[in-house]
Design goal:
Blueprint: E1 26-30, H1 34-46, E2 51-56, H2 62-69, E3 73-76, H3 85-94, E4 101-105, H4 110-118, E5 123-126, H5 131-142, E6 147-148, H6 153-162, H7 169-174, H8 178-188, H9 193-200, H10 204-218, H11 223-236
């Protein structure tokens, strides 16, 4: 018997020994420029097979769409005439919606990057990146990874160097427990809380609690900052 043959009576598309297909990431896009919004929607659907469940231009439509669609990721422009992206994100969080969010913007400002990180975004991407790189980064973010445009990594490093209030990396690392250091190592690999929980055989809520403690001890605002801090600590030997 052909091992790839369909099982008798099985729904179309299921074959013997085949794993259930991974559901396509579900995205909501928000951008006031029609060309950017429709172009990115087409790219994500046609090239990456992602499910763009809403592509919006008006900020007031976003909260309703997030409640109704429950997407895996929100891709949000920063500069919009009706309301800037971070103000909108603040309102989204105030509504109790914790949809993971990636900023996609033309702004390469260090101040904008810092503000986005303080808002707890999962990534910061630039519109002048290659389309394939944007698609790949959005896919990675939808799977729980942290993503930052390559052009912003130096600025992120500079933010981290000025952030800890004078304490050096050795002092900061020494303030972490062994378990927190383990979790920080996983954050440096861009892993989600769910993945970390499986790897360490602890609960998802326990990971979330440890991440909060790590950010507080390192005086950081987001997982992205923590991931870069961990990589830099490894390079400088601050273990």
């Amino acid at each position: 018997m052909n091992p790839a043959a369909s099982l008798p009576g099985a729904p179309a598309g299921l074959v013997a020994g085949a794993a259930a297909p991974t559901p396509a990431p579900r995205l909501v896009l928000v951008d006031d420029h029609s060309l950017c919004r429709t172009g990115l929607t087409d790219l994500l659907r046609q090239r990456a097979g992602m499910d763009v469940v809403a592509a919006l231009s008006e900020p007031e439509q976003v909260i309703a769409a997030l409640r109704d669609k429950r997407p895996d990721l929100l891709v949000l422009d920063l500069r919009m005439p009706a309301m800037d992206g971070l103000t909108l994100l603040q309102r989204i969080r105030a509504e109790g919606l914790d949809t993971p969010t990636v900023i996609l913007t033309m702004s390469d400002s260090e101040a904008d990057l810092a503000a986005a990180l303080r808002a707890g975004v999962r990534g910061y991407l630039l519109k002048d990146m290659e389309p394939e790189d944007v698609i790949a980064a959005i896919g990675n973010a939808a799977r729980g990874e942290l993503v930052v445009a390559p052009a912003m990594t130096l600025k992120l490093a500079q933010l981290l160097q000025s952030g800890p209030g004078g304490r050096n990396r050795n002092d900061l690392m020494a303030s972490l427990t062994e378990r927190e250091r383990q979790i920080l190592d996983h954050l440096a690999r861009g892993e989600s809380n769910k993945t970390i929980a499986r790897a360490l055989d602890i609960s998802h809520d326990t990971v979330k609690l440890h991440v909060r403690h790590i950010l507080a001890k390192l005086n950081l605002s987001s997982r992205v900052e923590a991931a870069v801090f961990a990589v830099e600590a490894r390079v400088t030997g601050a273990r």
